[in-house]
Design brief:
It contains three helices and seven strands, in the order αααβββββββ. By secondary structure, the chain is an alpha+beta fold. It has two domains: 3-75; 122-208, SH3 type barrels.
């Protein structure tokens, strides 16, 4: 039993001693319930033992009285026999409802779009997959500016295509590292060229879509 389990067990014993049941702990923590039940059973046994001894004593007294009754009737007038008071019955233990089984959480399956559904670039979401030739990527994080595609992978090369944010393009080559950037050769209906993967600060400009 580790420290947490021992702490729960001791708390159950303490609550049973004070007759202060924590229903949530009783239903959800095994060692709390174990400590609580063991002490209550021990208390119940101690309540039963004195009652058993007292019952045995009463039987002995009754037997002696029956034995001496004829002698008393011959020597003295009969006197009313006082009824012996029985001790009060021990208080009943609190009834604890059984723990309810946990409800299964629904796990709905995501809807699957039909195979012939048209691709809408506005609703495509980036996924954490590495860039590589042969996949489609989405231009992002350029704001009102545009991603400039150059004739070669260099800041000195001429700009041949400008791509707005949300444009879907295909990677057909790369990567090439130059001028502090990682370049990919991209193809679009308006042309092809080399574009940087991300800014110098690490802000991604291209992301794989699903």
């Amino acid at each position: 039993m580790d420290n947490d389990q021992r702490e729960l067990y001791e708390r159950g014993v303490a609550d049973a001693a004070h007759n202060d049941l924590n229903l949530f702990y009783y239903q959800h923590y095994y060692y709390y319930r174990k400590g609580y039940d063991e002490l209550r059973r021990s208390q119940a046994r101690w309540h039963r033992k004195p009652l058993g001894l007292l019952s045995g004593g009463l039987l002995i007294v009754l037997a002696v009285a029956l034995y001496l009754a004829p002698q008393w009737s011959n020597t003295a007038p009969s006197a009313p026999v006082a009824q012996s008071a029985l001790p009060p019955a021990p208080a009943s233990l609190p009834t604890v409802p059984p723990a309810a089984p946990p409800l299964a959480e629904p796990n709905p399956e995501p809807p699957v779009p039909p195979a012939d559904a048209p691709i809408n670039a506005d609703v495509l979401q980036p996924v954490p997959v590495g860039l590589q030739p042969g996949i489609q990527v989405l231009v992002m994080n350029v704001g009102d500016a545009s991603l400039r595609l150059r004739q070669t992978a260099s800041l000195e090369a001429d700009v041949v295509v400008r791509l707005d944010e949300g444009t879907l393009v295909s990677i057909i080559g790369g990567p090439v590292e130059a001028d502090g950037y990682i370049w990919w050769e991209l193809e679009h209906a308006t042309g092809r060229g080399w574009g940087a993967e991300r800014s110098l600060e690490g802000l991604p400009w291209l992301a794989v879509v699903q």
